[in-house]
């Protein structure tokens, strides 16, 4: 259909809400608008959806359009703007998806190391609790309550050297427990990075 066939009577009928006039307008412009959207958008389905949205918008705004020039300008300007908005939103959504993916990966790493750290702390506490009272008390005062060797010595009425020796013995006892666990932790980490 040529431009001449969209006469003023058809446009005025369309403006007043005549559905048959809308069909004439639709048939006249559809392929032009669809081709324009298809040129701007990456997928044919997106172009079809966009074209349909544009003709819905045209029907909603029909009362403001009273000439062929206005109809044509309305459709092409909105097609351009909506396609550009669509592409911008897609790009932003893609960037957000990448950020979420990166965030999720970093969160998984943090969670893994937190779990390992938590397990180690729990194991250390368990092993400290198994020590004889004297050694356990010194480690608790030193590492969990923050007293220095001299303060502990004053509290227990022993020499500072005695405290140092007791801490050394206690730490060595606890450390032995983890010699067998080192390989297990390393294996857990390697599984995470491999998969």
Automatic annotation (TrEMBL):
Q: Which Gene3D superfamilies match?
A: 1.10.1740.10, Winged helix-like DNA-binding domain superfamily/Winged helix DNA-binding domain
Q: Which UniProt keywords apply?
A: Sigma factor, Transcription, Transcription regulation
Pfam families the record matches: Sigma70_r2, Sigma70_r4_2
Look up the domain of life of the source. Answer: Bacteria
Please list the residue ranges annotated as the RNA polymerase sigma factor 70 region 4 type domain: 123-166
- Locate the RNA polymerase sigma-70 region domain: which residues? 26-92
| InterPro entries registered for this protein in UniProt | RNA_pol_sigma-70-like, RNA_pol_sigma-70_dom, RNA_pol_sigma70_r2, RNA_pol_sigma70_r4_t2, RNA_pol_sigma_r2, RNA_pol_sigma_r3/r4-like, WH-like_DNA-bd_sf
Keyword Transferase present in the record's keywords: the answer is no
The similarity annotation says:
Belongs to the sigma-70 factor family. ECF subfamily.
NCBIfam families membership: sigma70-ECF
Q: What is this protein called?
A: Sigma-70 family RNA polymerase sigma factor
Give the species this sequence originates from.
Answer: Chitinophaga chungangae
């Amino acid at each position: 259909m040529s431009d001449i066939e969209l006469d003023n009577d058809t446009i005025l009928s369309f403006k007043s809400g005549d559905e048959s006039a809308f069909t004439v307008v639709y048939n006249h412009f559809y392929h032009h608008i669809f081709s324009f959207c298809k040129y701007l958008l990456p997928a044919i389905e997106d172009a079809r959806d966009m074209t349909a949205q544009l003709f819905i918008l045209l029907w909603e705004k029909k009362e403001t359009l009273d000439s062929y020039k206005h109809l044509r300008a309305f459709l092409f300007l909105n097609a351009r703007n909506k396609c550009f908005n669509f592409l911008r939103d897609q790009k932003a959504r893609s960037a957000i998806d990448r950020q979420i993916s990166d965030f999720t990966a970093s969160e998984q790493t943090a969670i893994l190391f937190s779990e390992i750290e938590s397990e180690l702390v729990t194991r250390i506490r368990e092993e400290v609790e198994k020590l004889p009272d004297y050694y356990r008390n010194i480690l608790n005062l030193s590492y969990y309550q923050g007293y220095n060797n001299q303060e502990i010595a004053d509290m227990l009425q022993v020499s500072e050297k005695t405290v140092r020796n007791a801490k050394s013995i206690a730490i060595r006892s606890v450390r032995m427990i983890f010699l067998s666990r080192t390989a297990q932790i390393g294996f857990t980490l390697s599984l995470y990075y491999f998969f």
